[in-house]
Structures are given as structure tokens and as C-alpha cells.
């Protein structure tokens, strides 16, 4: 157990994130009584003193001045100080250095908008945040590719729409999303769709004269709906939202065992042009271990079925660092993915989410160390390049394996516009369904600000309180109508 002791908590989240990166998989507590390693952080005015000690009697100390009068400078100062101490203690160097935010591409994007070059961005990431050469280059390239995709987007007069389907065939061991097993909730699906359609109708007038740019249906597993239920939902969307000029319509088909020919026909009927088929791994023993009730053959069958149905933009999600896997497993997975040749691949580093079954039962799920996961990421990068897919969006999460990242790769013209928009936070995302979080972006001469309006996560509460969910958005927009 890793204990963190502080006399003030201004920078607790940043320090905790660095501890999680250096001691991946360990439980971290604030002011805990039992510990293997304890980090004590003391602030006096603009000075910081750190003391790290362990049960073996080893002790390290560092201190330095921090610019607490400026939050951003103070934040970097304290993170650099803590990083140097933890690096000395563990002998580790983190690939992303002191960066703990989930959207590192925002930094080079801001620099590009001011006329900086890729070399400038790489130097800044390395010098200010101690990012490795490899990750600084990746971040700068992704930001360039994002900028190309976003160059013609009119943020002021457009918005995107997210619709959430929280049901899944089964719950994976690593999952912490608001997902509900279909076997338990099947009788509530139609009631859920009743509520969702009511929210769709109400939301269709909320954005005024703004035009819908992208539509994304996620989950959960949207294809856990029957073909008839999917048809009903998409028909409802078309009734209330003008989808005729939407530039991207995505449905996260997700689990291969939930994909059927009839469902694919429904998606094509409603002009869905981008889907995701997510194996996570192409190693059967891993699929069995993490509770994904499909086979690697079903992945291939679902992919070929989608191609035959006419889908020319198919993404596949993978996870690096799944329990029991090594770089050899990732190589087998990437070989199989390259053979299928999808149009985009999204590679996630495993994140040990607090509520996930995997995290609560770690002894049952041995996971690879940081160096091995980084090798897996390297293999996935080479595999993506083999199908001529370039990195086009990137984000990070708390508790992520090896302090690494999630990267989306796509062939030219197959980039997921919605994925970039949700990461860069420059456009309003109107989100509907249980657990959905709308993100309203307001632009002015000083930049932009972001406000969130969330729906309840519980399916039962969402159904029973749907009028309240609608009123939350309406009331928020009424108060903010002069800011749009």
C-alpha cells in the first residue's frame, strides 16, 4: 500500500496520479496507517519539502521552490519535484514524464494555433514536462493530424449528438462503465427506449439554429438491442433530428457476439456509415478470462459480415496489458488484425478502474508491468502502420498501465471526427441516455469555457426521472442562452 500525506490538498490529484504511474497496480491511500511506501508532502509559502520512506528503512528527501502564486507554474514545479524523487527511488522514467492530464494533444494544438512548428511542440513537451522523445513526437504528430481533420469545422454553428445504450451481453472484468447485463435487464429495454425517445424529442429543439455535425451511438453495447429495437430508435432519431447533412454517423457495434445480419441491415437502412467491432484481443484464453463471451472466429465472422453488408469504415478496439498477456500475445492479435485490414484501430492501455471487477480482485488477474505494456503498444503501432493507418487522436486515463496512452489510428479519410471533437472539447456534445454527460462549449473573445450537464447513471432512475433529465438541460440552456 502506498500512503500519501499532505498538509494541504491543492495538488493532491496530480501527485496521486504520479504515484499511480510509478507504483502501477498498488492501492494508494491518503494519510493511511498501513503502508509499504509513504510520501509526505509539506508546503510552506512557496517552498515544498518531500520525504519518502519505506518499510525497509530507505528514506529520500527533496525540496524546492514552487510558484504557488501561479497555479499552472506551481503545478509544474510540484510535479517535477515529486517526479524526480519517485524516479530516483524506483529507478523508473515515465514515458509521459510529469503529464497527468488526459488530453496531452491540447498542448501542441494550442502551439500550432499560435504558429509554432512540430519541432517547437516536441521541444516544449520534453523540456517542460519531461516527456520522452517517442511520446513527444507521437503527441505532436497526432495534434497535426487532428488539426487537418478539424480545419473546416465551424464550432459556433454546429454540435454533435451522443446517444447511450447502457446494456451489454455480459460485463467484462475490466469494465467500469454504466453497463447493465442484458440477461438481467432485458425486460426493461423497451421502457428504456420509451424514455430515451422522449428525451430525443425534447432535445431536438434545444440547440436552436445549430446544425448537427456528427452522431455517435455508444454504450454499453448498442447492438445488444434487437434489430427491431434498433430500427425503432434510429427511426425516432430521424423523426426529430435532421440527419441528412450529418458528416459522420457512428454506431459502436462493439461485441462481435451481438452483431447479426439483420442488425447490420438496419444500420445500413438508416445510413450509418461508421461502426466499431471490438475484439480487445485475438487470444481466446484472454477473452475467456475477462468474461467476453465470444470467440476469435466470431470476431472474424462479424467483420466479414459487416464488409459484405457494405460498411467501408470499420474500427476495431484493442487493449494492451490485459491479464496474463505479454508482447507475444499482442503480436498474435496484431497479426490477426492486419489480416482483416480494418479502416481504423483504437489501441487502449489497460486502466485499472476502481469499480471494475478486475481491480477489486487483482490476485485473480495478473497484469504485465509497465515495460512489457509499452512493448505491446509499440507492436500495435507497427501493426497500425502496416494497414496504412496513422495516429489521429490520443487520450490518457487515470490508473492506466505504464502511464501510457490510448491511440486511435486511421487510414486517410476514415478518421473518427466525433472522437477528435470529444477529446479537444471545442464543440458542444449533446448527450442523451442513462449516464450520458452533455458538454456545452461557449466561445467568446477570451477563448472558450465548458459546462457539463449529466444524466443519472442508473437505468431505473433514468426511466423514472426522464422528465427531470430533460428539465436539467432545458433549465441550464435557459440560464446560458446569452452565452451561446
Written description of the protein model:
By secondary structure, the chain is of the alpha/beta class. It has three domains: 2-90, Double Stranded RNA Binding Domain (2-Layer Sandwich), CATH 3.30.160; 106-150; 155-430, pyruvate-formate lyase- activating enzyme, CATH 3.80.30. The chain has 17 helices and 18 strands. Strands 14-15-13-12-11-10-9-6-16 form a nine-stranded mixed beta sheet, with helices on both faces. It is globular. The model has no long low-confidence stretch (mean pLDDT 92).
How many beta-strand segments?
18
Please tell me the overall pLDDT.
Answer: 92
- Unreliable residue runs: none
Count of helices?
A: 17
Name of the CATH homologous superfamily of the largest domain? tm_1862 like domain
Judging by the overall fold, what is the CATH architecture of the largest domain? Alpha-Beta Horseshoe
Strand content: 15-25%
Largest sheet strand order: 14-15-13-12-11-10-9-6-16
Brief description of this entry?
By secondary structure, this protein is α/β, with parallel strands linked by helices.
Amino acid at each position: 500500500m502506498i500512503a500519501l500525506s499532505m498538509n494541504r490538498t491543492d495538488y493532491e490529484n496530480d501527485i496521486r496520479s504520479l504515484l499511480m504511474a510509478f507504483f502501477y497496480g498498488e492501492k494508494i491511500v491518503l494519510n493511511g496507517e498501513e503502508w509499504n511506501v509513504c510520501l509526505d508532502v509539506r508546503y510552506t509559502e512557496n517552498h515544498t519539502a518531500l520525504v519518502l520512506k519505506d518499510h525497509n528503512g530507505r528514506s529520500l528527501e527533496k525540496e524546492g521552490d514552487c510558484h504557488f502564486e501561479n497555479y499552472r507554474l506551481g503545478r509544474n514545479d510540484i510535479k517535477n519535484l515529486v517526479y524526480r524523487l519517485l524516479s530516483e527511488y524506483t529507478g523508473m522514467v515515465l514515458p509521459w514524464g510529469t503529464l497527468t492530464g488526459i488530453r496531452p494533444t491540447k498542448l501542441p494544438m494550442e502551439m500550432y494555433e499560435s504558429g509554432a512548428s512540430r519541432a517547437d511542440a516536441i521541444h516544449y513537451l520534453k523540456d517542460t514536462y519531461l516527456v520522452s522523445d517517442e511520446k513527444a513526437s507521437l503527441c505532436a504528430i497526432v495534434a497535426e493530424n487532428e488539426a487537418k481533420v478539424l480545419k473546416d469545422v465551424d464550432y459556433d454553428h454546429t454540435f454533435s449528438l451522443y446517444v447511450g445504450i447502457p446494456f451489454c451481453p455480459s460485463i467484462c472484468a475490466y469494465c467500469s462503465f454504466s453497463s447493465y447485463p442484458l440477461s438481467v435487464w432485458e425486460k426493461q429495454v423497451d421502457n428504456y427506449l420509451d424514455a430515451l425517445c422522449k428525451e430525443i424529442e425534447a432535445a431536438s429543439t434545444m440547440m436552436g439554429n445549430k446544425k448537427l455535425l456528427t452522431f455517435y451511438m455508444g454504450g454499453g453495447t448498442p447492438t445488444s438491442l434487437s434489430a427491431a429495437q434498433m430500427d425503432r430508435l434510429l427511426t425516432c432519431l430521424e423523426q426529430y433530428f435532421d440527419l441528412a447533412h450529418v458528416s459522420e454517423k457512428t454506431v459502436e457495434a462493439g461485441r462481435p457476439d451481438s452483431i447479426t445480419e439483420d442488425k447490420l441491415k438496419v444500420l445500413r437502412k438508416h445510413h450509418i456509415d461508421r461502426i466499431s467491432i471490438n475484439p480487445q484481443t485475438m487470444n481466446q484464453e484472454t477473452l475467456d478470462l475477462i468474461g467476453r463471451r465470444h470467440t476469435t472466429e466470431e470476431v472474424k465472422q462479424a467483420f466479414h459480415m459487416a464488409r459484405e453488408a457494405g460498411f467501408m469504415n470499420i474500427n476495431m478496439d484493442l487493449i494492451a496489458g490485459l491479464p496474463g498477456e505479454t508482447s507475444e500475445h499482442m503480436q498474435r492479435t496484431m497479426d490477426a488484425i492486419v489480416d482483416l485490414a480494418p479502416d481504423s484501430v483504437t489501441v487502449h492501455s489497460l486502466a485499472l478502474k476502481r469499480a471494475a471487477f478486475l481491480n477489486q480482485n487483482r490476485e485473480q488477474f495478473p497484469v504485465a508491468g509497465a515495460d512489457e505494456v509499452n512493448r505491446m503498444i509499440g507492436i500495435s503501432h507497427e501493426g497500425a502502420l502496416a494497414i496504412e493507418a496513422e495516429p489521429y487522436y490520443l487520450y490518457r486515463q487515470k490508473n492506466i498501465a505504464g502511464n501510457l496512452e490510448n491511440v486511435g489510428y486511421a487510414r486517410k479519410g476514415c478518421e473518427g471526427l466525433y472522437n477528435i471533437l470529444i477529446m479537444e472539447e471545442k464543440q458542444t456534445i449533446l448527450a442523451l441516455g442513462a449516464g450520458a454527460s452533455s458538454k456545452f462549449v461557449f466561445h467568446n473573445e477570451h477563448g472558450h469555457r465548458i459546462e457539463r450537464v449529466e444524466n443519472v447513471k442508473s437505468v431505473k432512475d433514468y426511466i423514472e426521472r426522464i422528465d427531470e433529465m430533460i428539465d436539467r438541460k432545458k433549465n441550464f440552456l435557459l440560464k446560458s442562452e446569452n452565452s451561446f
